[in-house]
């Protein structure tokens, strides 16, 4: 705790600068989440402070706005990422084992990179009237020198559409995911 | 400040604690609660990012350790794996077995069953898991994609 309070004193700001440098490596989505929420929270706190001179009330209103905005941004991220999953599942749906198709996603809201690659079906899984496929897909970098990344996932038919079907990791393996 | 997240790795409230402490200190110094709040939240954002970044790097180290062996291991043969983190907290180990090769026109992938034991005591926490790894150039990399967004729930 003593080390943390150091930050509040003059020399500590240098260390915040070091931490800020790492932001660039931290993925933009979390910065978006925290940045938007924090800005809204600060704006909320500012508004509250104009009405009340009670610091505790100010902080309370600021934190409330922070939580609401954070939930909104997460919803948005989930929707945008769901579009990418749907696009890969849609491309994989009609494929037989060993067939390859391209996939490409363009986002209406540019909070994720527009990505594309290829997808193929490695295995069909039929369980009663449920139909699923194990897929291997590539995410091709804009700079070919960086090499393609490959991933595996499951898609299942849901009515007329094919949907992403990989379940979440075991809670024991969430680690820093949460 | 940098040492604190390292010691309390996995504790995602470090950012909030740092934010609260700095925010309170600043608010006290300026007597303006909005300035205190803004500085506090700013600190929370920075410290959170650092903690998550370090956590991800450590988890990636463990994934790379398991995936690296996947390519060399014959199917059906078990081999031990272990991770020695630079910061010796959460050094896990276990056994791994490649159970299936997934041949596809895009890439060669393999399915692997692995155990994870956290510590060396008889009652150390342990688990059994299944994942995939694919060959990317000369390396093998962890290949299991993210869950469907409908299953994100509390993960996000």
Throw out a few tags for this protein.
heterodimer, A: 178 residues, alpha+beta, 5-stranded antiparallel sheet, 44% helix, elongated, disordered N terminus, B: 156 residues, 2 domains, 5 strands
What does it look like?
The complex is a heterodimer of chains A (178) and B (156). Chain A has helices spanning 2-5, 12-23, 28-51, 55-92; strands spanning 100-104, 116-127, 130-139, 149-158, 161-164. With 178 residues, chain A is of the alpha+beta class. Chain A has a 5-stranded antiparallel sheet with strand order 1-2-3-4-5, covered by helices on one side. The two termini of chain A are 24 Å apart. Chain B folds into 2 domains: 3-56; 72-155, no CATH class. In chain B, 38% of the residues lie in helices and 28% in strands. In chain B, strands 1-2-3-4-5 form a 5-stranded antiparallel sheet. Chain B starts with a helix and ends in a 14-residue tail after the last strand. At the A-B interface, helix 1, helix 2, helix 3, helix 4 and strand 2 of A face helix 2, helix 3 and strand 4 of B.
Topology (elements, then pairings):
The complex is a heterodimer of chains A (178) and B (156).
Chain A: H1 2-5, H2 12-23, H3 28-51, H4 55-92, E1 100-104, E2 116-127, E3 130-139, E4 149-158, E5 161-164
Antiparallel strand pairs in A: 1-2, 2-3, 3-4, 4-5
Helix pairs in contact in A: 3-4
Chain B: H1 3-7, H2 14-30, H3 33-70, E1 78-82, E2 92-103, E3 108-118, E4 126-136, E5 139-142
Antiparallel strand pairs in B: 1-2, 2-3, 3-4, 4-5
Helix pairs in contact in B: 2-3
